[in-house]
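Technical annex B. To support the medicinal chemistry partners, we prepared a structural model of the target in complex with zinc ion, based solely on the information shown next.
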Amino acid sequence: MTFEIEKSDEQWREELSSDRYAVLRKAATEAPFSGSLLHVDADGVFSCGACHQVLFTSAQKFDSGCGWPSFDACEPGTIVERVDTSLFRERTEILCSQCSGHLGHVFNDGPTQSGLRYCVNSLAIDFDKTN
Ligand SMILES: [Zn+2]
C-alpha cells in the first residue's frame, strides 16, 4: 500500500505525543472507556490525529457500548482496511488512507443498516464542532 503522506518513524515520533504515536504508528489500543471522545454528542467532524483528514461525522457515530468511539460508516475513500492476525484472531484493521495512521478496527456486527462498526481509538482522532 502506498500513501500520500509518508514520514519516517522518527518524524512521526517528533510530531505526535507519545500516546498518539503509540496508537497511530504502533497500533496500540487505548483502554476501553478511557477515551476523551467516547461521549461526544455535539454535531461536528472527526479527523485523523496525524494528518487531519476528515474521517467521520457525528451523524455516523453511535453508542456501541464497547468502550471506544464507534461509527457505522466513514467518509468515502478516507479509510483503508488491512487484515490483522495479532491476538490469535483475525480482525480488520482500519488505517487513514492519507497517512496510514492506525485508527482501530472495523467489525461486521453494527446495529444500523450498514452492518458495520468502526471501533476507533479516541487518541487517533480529533473532534471539531460545527459552528
Ligand atoms: Zn491520517
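Notes passed to the chemistry partners:
The two ends are 36 Å apart (CA to CA).
Residues 48, 50-51, 53, 96, 98-99, 101 surround zinc ion (CB under 6 Å).
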